[in-house]
Design brief:
The complex is a heterodimer of chains A (about 450) and B (about 450). By secondary structure, chain A is α+β, with helices and mostly antiparallel strands. In chain A, about 45% of the residues lie in helices and about 20% in strands. Chain A has a seven-stranded mixed sheet, with helices on both faces. In chain A, strands 1-2-6-3-5-4 form a six-stranded mixed sheet, sandwiched between helices. In chain A, a hairpin with a 5-residue loop joins strand 1 and strand 2. Chain A is globular and about 60 Å long. In chain B, strands 1-2-6-3-5-4 form a six-stranded mixed sheet, with helices on both faces. In chain B, strands 7-11-8-10-9 form a five-stranded mixed sheet. The longest helix of chain B is centred in the first third of the chain and has 20 residues. Chain B has two domains: about 200 residues, 2-Layer Sandwich (Cytochrome Bc1 Complex, Chain A, domain 1); about 190 residues, 2-Layer Sandwich (Cytochrome Bc1 Complex, Chain A, domain 1). Chain B contains 17 helices and eleven strands. The chains are: A alpha+beta (about 450), B alpha+beta (about 450).
Chain lengths: ~450, ~450
C-alpha cells in the first residue's frame, strides 16, 4: 500500500504559516488585607467570569471531619447577615448571574459569572458570602440531609466506586485517600464545625480572586477594592500529612456490583504535583499514551478492538502529591483482554523510544489545544488560576508551547520509565464478580469489596 | 442594555451547500462545523439508533483519508474534533489553530464526497456504540432518564417516540447497505451547512469553501417523513425500572408551542421562572422549602436545536418517605400557582436579565475545549431550519418582548394534564432505613 500512502500525503493541504498568539495581558495586585488578585480582559461577550479561591479544602479539614470543607461550601450560600437563602438566589437571578460554591481536596471556591454592567453588585454579594455567612440552622440541616442522599447515590455509580477505591489504595492514611464522607460521618457533622472551618479558611490572606472578562482593568481594580477592601482575616496554616507509602507490586481490587452489564477499569500509580519540573514532559507522555483521541490507547482498545467507548489516561495533580491513572468502561468478557492492552501500551512506551513523527504530532497537539483553551473567558480563567494557585512562573503561558516543542524521544522514554509505573500499578475493577473475577485475578493478588467498602470473602 | 452584534457572511454554493462565516480574529484559532439536516428523529424505521451509529462511521475513513487519518490529521494539527447526533441535526466539528483551516476543509470535503467504510469498520463501531450505551444508560443509575424514558410515553408518532440510542437488535441488523443508503440520501451538500468561525476573513472563508467543497455533486432533495404528532386529549403515564439507584424519580414533560411564535417566546420565559436554577420555582419549592426532592431540575433542552415536537421536562429525584403521588401533587401545586396567578412584573424583569445573560454565555460557550461551539450550533440550526443565520443577532428581541399576559396565557394553555406525560422511574432495590455503613468504617484506614 506504499503508493496509496504517498497519494494521501500529497493530497492533504500543508499547514500554512502560524499566526502569532497575542498572549492575554494579566494584571496582578494584592489588597492591603492580603487578598491576591489576578485580572485579564476578554471582550468577546459583555460578561465576566470570576472565582474566589481559598487555599484550604477537605484535606485541611479532615481532622474535624471528612468532607467538612465541602458541606461548609454548600451552606455558605444559604444565608448572610443581610439576606436569606431565597433572597440570595433571587438577587443572583436579578443580576443575571450564576454562582457555585464548592470544595475539593486542596481548595474551597466561590465561582461566578455575570453581566459586565452588573459587576459591582455581584462582587459585593460574593464578598458578603465570603465574609458574612451565618449558617442558619435549618439550612444546615437541609444541606446535611441532601448530602446524605448524595453520598448514597454516589455508591451506585461505577466511576465513583472506582476512584474511591483507587484513592484509598494509593494514599492509605493520607487525607487524599478519602474522596467522600461515609453516611455516618455526614450524620456527625456539627454546625459549629462548619463555622470554624468558615472562619479559618474563608479569609483574604488565604484567598485568591481571579477575574476574566469584559471590563477595564483599572476600573475593575477599584470595584474590587470597594467590594473586598474592608474584609480581614489571617492566613490559615495546616500541617502537611506524612507522605503515603508508594504501593509496590500490582494488586487488583474488585468492587462487586451485582448485575453490572459492563466493567469500569481504573488503574493508577503515584506521580507528581503541578509544580514538579517534570510536569510538562509527563503531560506530553500522557497525551501520547492515552490523553488524546489520536493516542495509542484509544487507537488500540477503541478504534482497533472496539472494547470500549471512552478510554483515557490522565495525570492528576493534588497539592502535595499526584497520580497517573488509566480508565475504560469495557464489555464484561474483555476485562482481561483490555488490561492486557493497557499494560502492553505502557510497557511499549517504557521499552522503545517514540518515533520522531509520532512525537511531532503529539507535540503539535498539546501546544495547539493549549491555545484553544485560552480562547474563552472560562478557559482563560482556569489557566490563570492554575498558574497562581501553583505559584508557577509569570511567563508560564508564553513559554509553555516552546517547552513542549523542545521535548525529545529520550525525554519521553525517561518519563515513561519513571512515572508510567507498569509493574506497580494498582488495578481497580468495578463490576459483577461472577463475570469478571477470574479475569481480574490474572493481574495480581485480588481483594474483593462491596459498594460500601466491606471486604468480601 | 448591552447588545451583541456578531458579524456574519453567508452564501450558497452551486451544489446547494450553505456556507456561514463569522469572523473574530482576537486569537489565531478557528472553529469549523458541518451540520447535516438529519438527526435521530427521522432515522429509518427498524433501524433505531442508526443516525448516531452513522455519525460514528463518519470518522471511519473516506477515499483519501483512510481510517484513523481523519483523527490523526486534526490532532496533529493542534486541534480537537468530535461529532454529535441530535433530534433534527447531526454535527461534525473541529477547533484548530487557524493555519490548519485548509486541511480541515479538505477533510470535511473528503468525507462529504466519498465516505469509504467496510464491514470491519461497521463491526468495530457497533461495538463501540454498544459500550457507549452501556456506560451512559444501561450501567448507570438513572441512565437515559428522562431523555430516553419519556418520548415513548409522550408521543405516538414513531419518529418522536422510538429509542434514539438504538435497540441492540436494530444496531446488529444495520449493514453496509444501510450506511450507503443513508449517506446517499441525507449526507449531500444540499442538505448541509458549513460554518467557519474565528480567525478567518469572510472572502477567504468563502473562497476556501468554493475551492474544496463546490464540486461535490448535489443529491436529490432528501425526503423527510412527517414528524407531527396527533392531538393529545388526556394525561399519559408510564413506568420504568431503575436498576441501580435507590431513590424514586419522575419526569413530567409538557409539549411546547411551535418555534418562534409569541407563545414560544413566552414559554421560554415561563421555563426560566420554573427551572431557572435555585431561584426557579420548582427547585425552590420542592428542594429548598418543602424538602421533598433531592434533585429537581430540567427545562427546555437545547431550545434552538430542535425542529419538531418536543417538551419542557422537569426531572425529580425524591426522598423515599414521600410517595410518587404525594410528590407529583406537590409539583402540581407549583404549576397551579403559576397557572392561577402568572408571574409578577418584577419577576419578569429579572427573568429577562437572566435570559439575556445566559444567551451570551451560550454563544461564547465552549464544549470539550471548543471555543464558540454555541455560536456555531445556533448559526447552523437557524440556517438549516429557517434559512436565516442572522437570527442569532435578533432572536433575543423576541424573548425580551415577552409580556406578562402572554406568559400567564401559555401557562394556562400548555401546563395542563392533557398536554403532558409523566414517567415514574422506580428502584427495584429501594432505600432501606438503616444504611449498612459499619463495614465501610472498619475498613477505612
Amino acid at each position: 500500500m506504499a503508493t496509496r500512502a504517498a497519494e494521501v500525503l500529497n493530497a492533504v493541504p500543508a499547514l500554512s504559516a502560524e499566526r502569532p498568539v497575542t498572549w492575554p495581558k494579566r494584571t496582578k495586585a494584592r489588597l492591603a488585607n492580603g487578598l491576591e488578585v489576578v485580572l485579564a480582559e476578554s471582550h468577546a461577550i459583555p460578561k465576566f467570569h470570576g472565582e474566589l479561591f481559598f487555599r484550604s479544602g477537605n484535606a485541611a479539614g479532615i481532622g474535624r471531619g471528612p468532607g467538612l470543607a465541602e458541606i461548609t461550601a454548600s451552606v455558605v450560600r444559604t444565608g448572610t447577615q443581610n439576606r436569606t437563602s431565597r433572597q440570595i438566589e433571587e438577587t443572583l437571578r436579578e443580576l443575571g448571574a450564576d454562582l457555585a460554591t464548592s470544595a475539593g481536596a486542596d481548595n474551597s471556591a466561590i465561582s461566578f459569572a455575570g453581566l459586565s454592567e452588573l459587576g459591582e453588585p455581584l462582587l459585593a454579594l460574593v464578598n458578603e458570602l465570603a465574609r458574612d455567612a451565618t449558617f442558619p440552622d435549618p439550612e444546615f440541616e437541609r444541606e446535611r440531609r441532601q448530602k446524605l442522599e448524595e453520598v448514597k447515590l454516589d455508591r451506585t455509580q461505577p466511576g465513583f466506586l472506582a476512584s474511591e477505591r483507587l484513592r484509598k489504595v494509593l494514599f492509605g492514611a493520607h487525607p487524599y485517600a478519602q474522596v467522600a464522607p461515609t453516611e455516618e460521618q455526614v450524620a456527625a457533622y456539627k454546625r459549629d464545625d462548619l463555622l470554624s472551618v468558615y472562619r479559618e479558611f474563608y479569609t483574604p490572606e488565604n484567598a485568591l480572586l481571579v477575574l476574566v472578562g469584559d471590563f477595564a482593568t483599572k476600573a475593575m481594580l477599584g470595584t474590587i477594592e470597594k467590594a473586598f477592601g474592608a474584609w480581614s482575616g489571617k492566613k490559615f496554616v495546616s500541617e502537611a500529612a506524612p507522605a503515603p507509602p508508594n504501593p509496590r507490586g500490582r494488586r487488583v481490587y474488585l468492587v462487586h456490583v451485582p448485575g453490572a452489564v459492563q466493567t469500569q477499569l481504573l488503574a493508577g500509580c503515584h506521580a507528581i504535583t503541578r509544580k514538579h519540573p517534570d510536569w510538562i514532559k509527563l503531560g506530553l507522555t500522557n497525551s501520547l499514551y492515552g490523553g488524546a483521541f489520536n493516542s495509542r490507547l484509544v487507537m488500540n482498545i477503541r478504534e482497533d478492538k472496539g472494547y470500549t467507548y471512552s478510554p483515557r489516561s490522565s495525570v492528576n495533580p493534588l497539592r502535595q502529591h499526584g497520580y497517573f491513572s488509566v480508565s475504560a468502561a469495557v464489555r464484561n468478557d474483555v476485562v482481561a483482554a483490555s488490561l492486557t492492552e493497557i499494560f502492553y501500551e505502557l510497557d511499549k512506551l517504557r521499552a522503545l523510544p517514540v518515533p520522531e513523527p509520532e512525537l511531532a504530532d503529539a507535540r503539535n497537539y498539546l501546544s495547539g489545544v493549549f491555545s484553544l483553551g485560552l480562547a474563552t473567558q472560562e478557559g482563560l480563567l482556569s489557566q490563570l488560576a492554575t498558574v497562581a494557585l501553583n505559584e508557577l512562573p509569570d511567563d508560564y503561558l508564553e513559554t509553555y508551547r516552546d517547552k513542549v516543542r523542545a521535548l525529545t524521544p529520550d525525554d519521553l522514554l525517561a518519563m515513561a520509565r519513571k512515572y508510567l509505573d507498569s509493574p506497580n500499578m494498582q488495578i481497580v475493577v468495578v463490576g459483577d464478580r461472577t463475570q469478571i473475577e477470574s479475569q481480574a485475578a490474572l493481574f495480581g493478588g485480588l481483594e474483593v469489596y462491596d459498594a460500601h467498602g466491606a471486604r468480601l470473602a | 442594555m448591552n447588545r451583541l452584534q456578531i458579524p456574519i457572511e453567508s452564501t450558497t454554493l452551486a451544489n446547494g451547500l450553505k456556507v456561514v462565516i463569522a469572523p473574530e480574529t482576537s486569537a489565531p484559532v478557528v472553529t469549523v462545523g458541518v451540520y447535516y439536516k438529519i438527526g435521530f428523529r427521522l432515522e429509518p424505521r427498524g433501524r433505531s439508533g442508526f443516525a448516531h451509529l452513522f455519525e460514528h462511521m463518519m470518522f471511519q475513513g473516506s477515499a483519501n483519508a483512510p481510517k484513523m487519518q481523519h483523527i490523526k490529521l486534526i490532532n496533529s494539527s493542534g486541534g480537537v474534533l468530535n461529532g454529535s447526533t441530535h433530534y433534527d441535526v447531526t454535527n461534525y466539528f473541529e477547533a484548530v489553530p487557524s493555519n490548519a483551516l485548509e486541511r480541515v476543509l479538505w477533510l470535511e470535503a473528503d468525507r462529504m464526497r466519498s465516505l469509504k467504510v467496510d464491514d470491519e469498520n461497521l463491526r468495530n463501531q457497533r461495538d463501540v456504540v454498544k459500550e457507549e450505551v452501556r456506560v451512559n444508560v444501561m450501567n448507570q443509575p438513572y441512565g437515559g432518564f428522562p431523555w430516553l424514558d419519556l418520548p415513548p410515553i409522550a408521543f405516538r408518532n414513531w419518529a418522536n417516540a422510538h429509542n434514539f440510542y438504538g435497540d441492540f437488535a436494530d444496531l446488529d441488523a444495520a449493514d453496509l447497505a444501510d450506511v450507503q443508503a443513508f449517506c446517499k440520501t441525507y449526507y449531500v451538500p444540499n442538505n448541509a451547512v458549513l460554518l467557519i468561525l474565528g480567525d478567518v476573513r469572510p472572502d477567504e472563508g468563502i473562497a476556501l469553501a468554493n475551492k474544496y467543497l463546490d464540486d461535490i455533486p448535489a443529491g436529490a432533495p432528501p425526503p423527510f417523513a412527517d414528524p407531527s404528532e396527533p392531538g393529545q386529549t388526556e394525561e399519559r403515564r408510564g413506568q420504568v425500572e431503575e436498576k441501580f439507584g435507590t431513590l424514586p424519580a419522575m419526569a413530567i414533560g409538557y409539549r411546547l408551542p411551535p418555534r418562534r411564535t409569541t407563545e414560544w417566546y413566552a414559554m421560554a420565559l415561563l421555563d426560566q421562572a420554573l427551572h431557572g436554577g435555585r431561584a426557579g420555582r420548582v427547585y425552590r419549592e420542592l428542594v429548598l422549602e418543602k424538602q421533598i426532592a433531592v434533585e429537581a431540575d430540567g427545562g427546555i433542552d437545547d431550545i434552538f436545536g430542535y425542529n419538531g415536537p418536543t417538551q419542557m421536562v422537569t426531572r425529580i429525584l425524591h426522598k423515599p418517605e414521600y410517595s410518587s403521588e404525594q410528590t407529583l401533587t406537590e409539583f402540581d401545586s407549583v404549576i397551579r400557582k403559576v397557572r392561577d396567578a402568572g408571574i409578577s412584573d418584577d419577576e419578569l424583569e429579572h427573568l429577562k436579565v437572566k435570559w439575556r445573560s445566559d444567551y451570551f454565555s451560550t454563544l461564547e460557550g465552549g464544549r470539550g475545549g471548543m471555543p464558540r461551539y454555541g455560536l456555531m450550533h445556533l448559526l447552523a440550526c437557524f440556517t438549516l431550519f429557517d434559512n436565516q443565520p442572522g437570527l442569532v443577532n435578533t432572536i433575543l428581541d423576541g424573548f425580551m418582548a415577552a409580556k406578562r399576559d402572554a406568559i400567564h396565557a401559555v401557562a394556562q394553555k400548555y401546563l395542563r394534564p392533557e398536554n403532558r406525560a409523566v414517567v415514574f422511574r422506580l428502584p427495584v432495590r429501594p432505600a432501606v432505613a438503616g444504611p449498612p455503613v459499619s463495614a465501610g468504617a472498619k475498613e477505612a484506614a
